[in-house]
Amino acid sequence: xxxxxxxxxxxxxxxxxxxxxxxxxxxxxxxxxxxxxxxxxxxxxxxxxxxxxxxxxxxxxxxxxxxxxxxxxxxxxxxxxxxxxxxxxxxxxxxxxxx
Length: 99
Prior knowledge:
The chain is an alpha+beta fold.
């Protein structure tokens, strides 16, 4: 699922909360990361099967906006690994799987 992120953080975070709630589970069952290449991050790094794992990718936006959104999602309880984030990342992704 692709979603548009914008500079109105309240609207964007409400959208994330609604989507994550619709997929079920708790925030700690979701992984958040930053990327320039969503396909590489999801397929090559996380081995995502697009038919069996819930995933979300944002549109391209400023690195500052996606870093801030990631920070908020981490405070909600999402899992993360900063070592897997790409330098110069311009997209945020979330996936729900056992990690």
